[in-house]
Amino acid sequence: MRATPAGAQEQTYRGQRLGLPESGQASLAPPGPRIAAWIVDAIASGLVAALFVNAFAPRDADHDLAARLPGYWSLVPFAVDYVVGLLVAGRTLGMYLFGLRVIRVDRNEAVNPWRALLRTLLLMLFIPAVVFDRDGRGLHDRYTDTAVVRS
Q1: Which residue, 23, 43, 44, 35, is CA-closest to 150?
Q2: Other C-beta atoms within 10 Å of 10: how many?
Q3: Is the CA virtual torsion 37, 41, 42, 47 positive or negative?
Q4: Which residues 6+ apart lie within 8 Å of 129 measured at CB?
Q5: Whole-angstrom Cα distance, residue 142 to residue 18?
Q6: Whole-structure pTM over 0.85, yes or no?
Q7: pLDDT tens column, 67-111
Q8: Cα(140)–Cα(58) distance, rounded to whole angstroms?
Q9: Stretch 104-128: mean pLDDT, rounded?
Q10: What is the per-residue pLDDT across 23-61, written as a single tens digit (0 to 9) for each?
Q11: d(Cα 16, Cα 125) in Å, to the nearest integer?
């Protein structure tokens, strides 16, 4: 058993250190819905990028389907979805579908533009998103003082 420093309270649930409730609205979102929301956003971004790539791709017989796939172009609508979604509604399309939103944990304010942009850039690197702290927040959330909660 680990000793707790004098005056410190041991964490009994995820989000307690952040002052969030244990369950219900405004509690930390579990990994399943977060991952599902991310997948929805990634698929939607890929579809949007595919529309644009296919609209402007040459239609020669020499170009196959692989040449017309969106590839890295899908990061553009993904970034727009995240940055604009966080600034306007505090959530993305996928988060909306799964009842999630992003909040700041350091103060009771909306996510500001630089936090939304930094969080999105870190999320696009993917590595920070799969490294979690003991509250279940990814590094992209830790670096921007944000958390994904149930709405």
Answers
A1: 23
A2: 9
A3: positive
A4: 38, 122, 123, 138, 139, 140
A5: 11
A6: no
A7: 666 778 889 999 999 999 999 999 999 999 999 999 999 989 999
A8: 38
A9: 91
A10: 999 999 998 999 999 999 999 999 998 888 777 666 664
A11: 28
Q: What DSSP line would sit under the chain, residue for residue?
A: -PPPPTT-----STTTTTT--SSSTTSBPPHHHHHHHHHHHHHHHHHHHHHHHHHHS---TT--HHHHS-GGGGHHHHHHHHHHHHHHTSS-HHHHHTTEEEEESSSSSPPPHHHHHHHHHHHHHSHHHH-B-TTS-BHHHHHHTEEEEE-
| Amino acid identity for residue 132 in this structure | F
Confidence of residue 5 (pLDDT cuts 50, 70, 90): low
Q: Report residue 23 CA to chain centroid gap.
A: 20
pLDDT at 42: 93
Angle between the 31-56 and 75-88 helix axes, to the nearest 10 degrees? 130
CB atoms within 10 A of CB 70: 19
